[in-house]
Design a protein that fits this description.
alpha+beta, four-stranded mixed beta sheet, 3 helices
């Protein structure tokens, strides 16, 4: 059952804000190429990483998946001023 208050659901459903964020600038399902902020599950550890053309420049370790999406949302909302 999907928790409507979860960060991922809020993030995905907020289309007005998402329209301002190029889809290639973030990944909700692992490491992607280019300049992007990614949620990565690595050996049961949840990370939010910034990939800059194949070079990881920032890593935030999170307690669980929900916290990782919360951190991704926080970093994007800070960058976009919402």
């Amino acid at each position: 059952m999907i928790n409507e208050n979860s960060t991922l659901v809020r993030f995905v459903m907020n289309t007005d804000k998402l329209k301002k964020v190029p889809h290639q600038s973030y990944s909700l399902d692992g490491l992607k190429n280019g300049e992007c902020l990614c949620v990565v599950n690595q050996d049961d550890t949840w990370l939010v990483v910034y990939n800059s053309q194949g070079r990881i420049t920032s890593v935030t370790e999170c307690q669980n998946e929900e916290d990782a999406y919360e951190e991704l949302y926080r970093q994007i909302s800070d960058a976009y001023g919402w």
